[in-house]
Amino acid sequence: MKIRKGDTVKVITGKDKGKTGKVRQVDEKSGRVWLEGLNIVKRHQRPTQTHRQGGIIDKEAPISVSNVMYYDEKAGKASRIGYRIDGDNKVRIAKRTGDVISQPK
Description:
CATH architecture of the domain at 8-73: Roll
Mean pLDDT: 91
Strand content: over 45%
Structural class: mainly beta
Number of helices: 0
Helix content: under 10%
Largest sheet: 6 strands, antiparallel
Number of strands: 10
Oligomer: single chain
Distance between the termini: 17 Å
């Protein structure tokens, strides 16, 4: 999977189309990502030890990785991701600008 935790991505389809957000979590097995502050859904929560109040809560839902693209801040647009060999290292590059994508923190 080319999208990693900490990347800034742009949603290309769905109810949050056009919005950008940071990847909070990646599930490679199911091909889904969680974005900070995007794809918010309402869930009915039963009162528990951790959520004593219960009721209807807002929470982030996963979105398919096929519905997001890496957001290249230098170009200000979404870009595809490719790979290039630099010496002994394989690095990710933004195909729109050709720049190396730094490792997310």
